[in-house]
TrEMBL record:
Residues 28-38 have a biased composition (Low complexity). Residues 1-21 form the signal peptide. Residues 28-50 are annotated as: Disordered. The lineage of its organism: Eukaryota, Fungi, Dikarya, Basidiomycota, Agaricomycotina. Residues 63-159 form the Cytochrome b5 heme-binding domain. It holds the Pfam family Cyt-b5. Keywords: Signal. InterPro entries: Cyt_B5-like_heme/steroid-bd, Cyt_B5-like_heme/steroid_sf, MAPR/NEUFC/NENF-like. GO terms for cellular component: endoplasmic reticulum; membrane. Belongs to the cytochrome b5 family. MAPR subfamily. This is Steroid-binding protein 3. It comes from Favolaschia claudopus. GO terms for molecular function: heme binding. The keyword Signal applies.
């Protein structure tokens, strides 16, 4: 095979991959650093689901991490919950991505804040303690919190987060930053 043929095959393989990656990255451009509800989001063509305007008022059901596990999509008769920084979202409407065996089931039935901040789909990273994240990853995490807040009903709050995360939450509610979005 000539090097020109190799070049052609590389192009055929790389171009679609580059196209998909660009679309995905563009579509996940942080939507929510500005939390001002008076600022309209620009209508960006996205492969991500659009924000909703029919969300229910947040509920504040207290849940332990052990209770949260029941809502990991393994029992189709129960809703599916994802917690981010202790805020519990009902993601049942997206069972096609969070349900058992689906791509983002790793975040279901738990608080996987650290993994979301790191953009990691590793099981070991999907844990609540995000205290080791650097500033950039914390911003990614806050943007995910903003993303979920605009698309999923809040049903509760995790009450037994690791101590270190609890402290951070308390500190940020004493001194709230716009990006925290909590
Ligand atoms: C090349 C790598 C990736 C591709 C092509 C990709 C693709 C996608 C697509 C197509 C969606 C929209 C799904 C839907 O609404 O049905 C999506 C959503 C999402 N992705 Fe990824 N993804 C990638 C990597 C990641 C990684 C590393 C993470 C880890 C944090 C991640 C987390 C998410 C989350 C949380 C959603 C939101 C689903 C929702 O609730 O609407 N993705 N991704």
């Amino acid at each position: 095979m000539s090097s020109f043929d190799l070049f052609k095959y590389a192009l055929v393989l790389l171009l679609p991959a580059a196209y998909l990656a660009t679309r995905y990255l563009r579509s996940t451009t942080p939507p929510a650093s500005s939390t001002s509800s008076t600022v309209e989001e620009k209508p960006v063509k996205s492969i991500m689901q659009a924000p909703r305007d029919d969300l229910a008022p947040p509920k504040m059901i207290p849940l332990t991490l052990a209770q949260l596990k029941e809502f990991d999509g393994s029992d189709p008769s129960k809703p599916i919950y994802v917690s981010i920084k202790g805020t519990v979202f009902d993601v049942s409407a997206k069972a096609d991505v969070y349900g058992s065996g689906k791509s983002y089931n790793i975040f279901a039935g738990k608080d996987g804040s650290k993994g979301l901040g790191m953009s990691s789909l590793k099981e070991a990273d999907a844990v609540p303690d995000y205290s080791e994240l650097n500033d950039a990853d914390r911003k990614v995490l806050d943007d995910w919190h903003g993303f979920f807040s605009k698309r999923y009903n809040v049903v509760g709050r995790v009450i037994d987060l690791p101590a270190v995360v609890k402290q951070e939450r308390e500190a940020s509610s004493e001194n709230p930053t716009p990006a925290a979005n909590l």
